[in-house]
Design a protein that fits this description.
single chain, Aspartate Aminotransferase, domain 1, Aspartate Aminotransferase, domain 2, 2 domains, seven-stranded mixed sheet, four-stranded antiparallel sheet, binds pyridoxal-5'-phosphate
């Protein structure tokens, strides 16, 4: 018996990870709102649109018809068929709905299960920074070693293939990309993706590509799934979901597409974590995801993002002390605030407390991003305009006091 064991102590696995800074900001926003302050939040990564009406209605019908029991572990068959069709239309990659698609409870679960099913103790996984925080933390939880390549503002946060090659070792098992990218807004072009594929084949590693924002690309930029390159389907695991592109963050519905063997491995983790995603949600989405009305509502949402992005960029262009890399996709802008004399962390903290505008400090997304803040344009144009006025005031006061 371990008599000196502190029963409140976390496992070594949990000790390896830190709570997310994004959550800390969102919690502070809640506190300020509860104490009566009007906060303009350009912090969260969630569309402020309503979920498409047909999806809501079909889900309510499914509940009323008592589809409230377990579904297949892989997911409701009709939903998998619809996901296969959508993936084929959008990427040109054919996945067999019976064996190559797994429905998960969120993109986060998809990332979690994918990494747990690939990474063993000591395996190296190449990541780019800044990045969505889950990849690094899940690799650590899995006992793997995150090998982080810093992306540079001078390179417009694009991937430097030479750098990737330098970081590959005998232990490299996996490389993770996020395309379109949160937080940089990068959308990788054919040449970068082709070269990553070549490296993956040459050095025999797996590519996990998080394509959660695949529909949100701007200025005629073309999104390409890395699985669409010749012979890459079996070597890639693609993460996707409904949170961002269908305004369904609270529904927690995601999916994975990959070769049959890989899906079977991931399925085991899924079985022992959630068993299956809520049945009525799967049915509602299967019924409503491709109706004419849903298509119209989604395309209106995308058009609105186009306008908001331009509104935010135009506004930022006029503000002294801020500069940024033009985002090609997703709904974030990484802005460099170093000219104001503050770090991104201090800037975001003071902007929230003094001007009641919430943004995410860049260090929350990458250790080397201390000069940056992430601004989300998943908020109404009115909100964005008010935030821009407050940011301008804030910068003026900072630049004056220098
Ligand atoms: C790049 C990326 N992947 C995955 C997710 C997780 O999405 P979900 O809400 O479906 O868990 C997010 C959410 O912010 C994200 O930005």
């Amino acid at each position: 018996m371990k008599t000196d064991y502190d029963i409140t102590q976390d496992s070594d696995r949990v000790k390896k990870v830190e709570p997310s800074l994004i959550r800390t900001v969102l919690n502070r926003v809640d506190e300020l709102r509860k104490s009566g302050h009007e906060i303009i939040a350009l912090s969260a990564g969630e569309p402020d649109f309503n979920t498409p009406s047909d999806i809501k209605e079909a889900t309510i019908n499914a509940i009323n018809q008592n589809y409230t029991h377990y579904s297949s572990n892989r997911g409701y068959e009709k939903l998998r068929k619809k996901i296969a069709e959508k993936t084929w239309e959008e990427t040109g990659v054919y996945y067999d709905y019976q064996s190559e698609i797994l429905v998960t409870s969120s993109g986060a679960e998809a990332i979690n299960n994918t990494i747990l099913s690939i990474v063993d103790e000591g395996d190296e996984a190449i990541l780019f920074s800044p990045a969505f925080v889950n990849y690094e933390n899940m690799i650590k939880i899995s006992g793997g070693v995150p090998v982080i390549i810093d992306l540079k503002r001078e390179d417009r946060f694009e991937i430097d293939i030479g750098k990737v090659e330098e970081h590959i070792t005998e232990k490299t098992k996996m490389l993770v990309i996020n395309n379109p990218n949160n937080p940089t807004g990068a959308v990788y072009d054919r040449s970068v993706l082709e070269q990553l594929c070549e490296l993956a084949v040459k050095h025999n590693f797996i590519i996990v590509s998080d394509e959660m924002y695949s529909r949100l690309v701007y200025d005629d930029v073309l999104f390409r799934s890395i699985a669409s390159f010749p012979d890459m389907k079996e070597r890639c695991v693609i993460i996707n979901g409904f949170s961002k592109t269908y305004a369904m963050t609270g529904w927690r519905l995601g999916y994975i597409t990959a070769g049959e063997k890989r899906i079977n491995g991931i399925l085991k983790i899924h079985q022992y974590s959630t068993t299956c995603s809520p049945t009525f949600i799967q049915m509602g989405v299967a019924e409503g995801m491709d109706t004419e009305l849903t298509k119209k509502e989604i395309s209106q949402m995308v058009d609105t993002f186009v306008k908001r992005r331009l509104c935010l960029m135009k506004g930022l262009d006029k503000i002294k002390g801020l500069s940024y890399v033009i985002p090609k996709g997703a709904f974030y802008i990484m802005a460099d605030v170093s000219e104001t004399g503050l770090s991104g962390l201090d800037y975001a903290g003071r902007l929230l407390e003094e001007k009641h505008v919430a943004v995410i400090p860049g260090v929350g997304l990458g250790k080397r991003c201390s000069d940056f803040i992430r601004i989300s344009f998943a908020a109404s144009t009115k909100y964005i305009e008010t935030a821009l006025d407050r940011i301008e005031d804030f910068n003026q006061s900072l630049m004056k006091s220098e």
